[in-house]
Amino acid sequence: MFFILFRLLSFSFALLYQDDGGRDSYNSDFQYKTIVLGSSTAEGAGASLLSNSWVFRLEQELKISNKASSVVNYGKSGYSTFHIMPTGTRYSNRPNPDVERNITKALSNYPNMIIINMPSNDAAYGYSNEEQLRNYRLLIQLIKKRKIQYLLISPQPRNFKNNEQRKQQNELFQLMKKEFSPNFVDVWSILSSEDFSLKSTFDSGDGIHLNDQGHDYIFQQVFAKINEIK
User: Fold this and answer.
1) Helix axis angle, 54-65 relative to 2-16, nearest 10°?
2) 170: burial class by Cβ within 10 Å (0-12, 13-18, 19+)?
């Protein structure tokens, strides 16, 4: 469905931009831009090669159907939801937004889709689920106001020594799934063990970041959801 939309849009633009001599001045596919906001998983941490990271693979797959597709990756290791908040946002004892990698910057680039991938840093820094949900609601409100498609990827399990932090992540997953579906991408259900730690199958070795198999799973889920919501 996603690919069919690309082709229909490309054909429509070609018809609109014919000059008087019957030549198509629009000589490329529809330029569909996706922007990824996130932290280390989005940046590619844990993958053996950057080409095995989920964001890189997504762009390559999209280009198969539409060579003019692009994926702009603003993912940065260590970032929390506060780092991607709108420029000018201020909360006491919380990081200020990164004006080069936040939602304001993303919207200024006129994307067709925004994907948000924030696995576990908020919990690691001690930020509450209520804070995270508030941040997500504001981000999505801004995206919807611009009538942009979006996907919100679920939290990732992490081998926190504190059981309460692992439980917090599971609770956040449940709350996000309920509130943000159908634009919610569930990777938690497969990546998580019964105690809400990261399954060894997907662990790059540090109990935090995903290996190639983990990145492949996120790619598959995101790509399937793109086709679903289109």
Assistant:
1) 50
2) middle
> Which residue shows structure tokens 């259900």?
189
- Domains assigned to the chain: 1-29 (no CATH), 31-229 (3.40.50.1110)
Per the CB < 8 A criterion, the answer to whether 43 and 207 are in contact is: no
Give 147-181 pLDDT, tens digit per residue.
999 999 999 999 999 999 999 999 999 999 999 99
pLDDT digits 0-9 by tens, 9-53: 333 333 333 333 332 222 346 789 999 999 999 999 999 999 999
Q: What is the pTM of this model?
A: 0.88
Residues whose CB falls within 8 Å of the CB of residue 82, separated by 6 or more in sequence, listed in order: 89, 91, 94, 95, 96, 97, 122, 127, 135
